[in-house]
Amino acid sequence: MLIDTHAHLDYPDFAPDFDAVLARAKEAGVTEVVSIGTRLDSSRRALALAQSHPGIVHAAVGIHPCDVGSESLSQLDALRALAREPGVAALGETGLDYYRLPGAKEAPDDPVLAAEIDERIKKWQAEVFRAQLEIAAETGLNVVIHQRGDCWADTLHILKDFTGKLRGVFHCFGGTPEQATEVIALGHLVSFTGIVTFKNAELVHQTARTVPLDQFMVETDCPYLAPVPHRGKRCEPAHTRLVAEKIAELRGLPLAEIAAATTKTARGFFRMG
């Protein structure tokens, strides 16, 4: 039995064959899925899926850093109410993303203005990230963390104020074994996607080999990041099995051991049952 701990089932990619997607997941041994919100509307859809598929789909509600804008702080009361709804298993995804800041695109001929735009976006992301962590602490939920680009130190700096109040999972983890150790030392977890099946993902391979067995989970981030041999196609929860199989191969363990450990960790983190 496996749990896909990070999927975007509310996306239109799955609307034409949603029931078949869940059936293929079950056939592959993926019995539960956490559907992740990225905005208020996305979070509401994820919650609706969880409430219409109890015990199979669970929801995480949150505002993704790439969807943060000047209006985001005013949406937090609505997010706080959503977080208290039955079927919500976590807060997120939330975090920081400096990978594609808009300054260069919005002010290509004015580097000073471009830098000001980027700093404003970073400030908004940090404020909304911190506010969502506060909601998580209030509601007793753990947090799904998005961290991309040159924001590692900023992410940990914000998280450290919540040590002992909540746990986070760094989803789609692509960092070094040392960074994974740093995360785990703060009480958090990491999670691996189909990237672990890519031939050129040696850093992810190293980390997947070394993280303690009870400190990571598996996910798809579907419809993105389809594992080999489906790379370039739509990813779906059934592919969680391929992620787990590759980690089992890297660690020299049977799939059943990886499945048992990651499922136990996911059940505890998302408080399933």
Percent of residues in helices comes to 40-55%
Strand order of the largest sheet: 1-2-3-4-5-6-7-8
CATH architecture descriptor: Alpha-Beta Barrel
How many structural units, i.e. domains? 1
Helix/strand-derived category reads alpha/beta
Question: How much of the residues is beta strand, in percent?
Answer: 15-25%
Q: What does the overall shape look like?
A: globular
What oligomerization state is this entry in? single chain
Largest sheet: 8 strands, parallel
- The secondary-structure element order is EHEHEHEHHEHEHEHEHH
CATH class category: Alpha Beta
The CATH topology is given as TIM Barrel
Distance between the first and last residues' Cα:
15 Å
Write the layout of secondary structure elements.
Layout: E1 2-7, H1 18-27, E2 30-36, H2 40-52, E3 57-61, H3 76-83, E4 88-97, H4 103-106, H5 111-139, E5 143-148, H6 152-160, E6 168-170, H7 177-185, E7 189-192, H8 202-210, E8 216-218, H9 240-251, H10 255-269
Parallel strand pairs: 1-2, 2-3, 3-4, 4-5, 5-6, 6-7, 7-8
Helix pairs in contact: 3-5, 5-6, 9-10
